[in-house]
Amino acid sequence: MDEIIEAIRQELKANSDDNTRNNYQRFFKEKVTYYGVKTGIVNKIANKHWNEVKLLDKKTVFPLCEELLHSGFTEEAFIVSSWVPNMIMQLELSDLSTFKSWIENFIDNWAKCDSFCNHTIGGLIERQPEAVMELKKWAKSDNRWLKRAAAVSLIVPAKKGNFLQDALEISSILLSDKDEMVQKGYGWLLKEASRKHQREILDYVLTKRKTMPRTALRYAIELMPKELRAKAMKKD
Question: Where are the domains of the chain?
Fold first, then answer.
């Protein structure tokens, strides 16, 4: 399997371009490691090599994923975020311990966190709803990316109107967190939940706005009508 990893890395290097490379860092406050490859091209590379590994079971694919994550390169993490959701029917609750370890040890920016959690963990939760209990444990972690993961893993289900009470519970756990990455994470979750549950999210925000950081609040109400946004932002 080493030849697959080497081929991926050579293709990423070959597809790096000056404009993407020179502008990549500006999207992040923390220092990130990257080749400078457009996301669309990364996806094509991921799909190409998925055709080589898709018949393998997860016990073989997971070590490949871990090797890619271990490199630190953001684009290699995106390959993992493309591959693992394709294995959704193989995923089990026990895999959450592996994913937790990956987040703790290899996730170091919001792009890696969100691309992995949205569809991999979000997909697992849709199939096995009891997995949401693990997210509530992550929300109480000291690790900023586990805390963000607790929120953004529910983004896809929340868009469909699902897991509302769990989304509110996780948001309440994270409510006073001082980390902007965490605030934006649960604020985004509330925003997506508002697509199907506008009244419930507005009521939640109005109840919590005295303690909710303004960053999270602004995210949460972004999709609401102007008059509701003004009501939520009004200072008592």
Answer: 1-90, 107-236
> What's the Cα-to-Cα distance from 82 to each of 47, 72, 168, rounded to whole Å?
8, 16, 28
Distance CA 122, CA 108 (A): 19
Pull the structure tokens for residue 152: 């953004």
Q: What is the DSSP letter of 213?
A: -
CA–CA separation, 101 vs 124, rounded Å? Answer: 16
- Which pLDDT band holds residue 236 (cuts at 50, 70, 90)? low
- Residue 93 sits at φ, ψ, to 5 deg, of -55, -35
pLDDT in tens, 85-116: 999 999 999 999 999 999 999 999 999 999 99
Nearest to 72 by CA among 34, 114, 21: 34
pTM recorded for the entire structure: 0.95
**Euclidean distance between CA atoms 178 and 147, whole angstroms:** 12
Q: What amino acid is encoded at 37 in this protein? A: V
What class is the 107-236 domain? mainly alpha
Cβ neighbours of residue 225 closer than 8 Å, sequence gap 6 or more: none
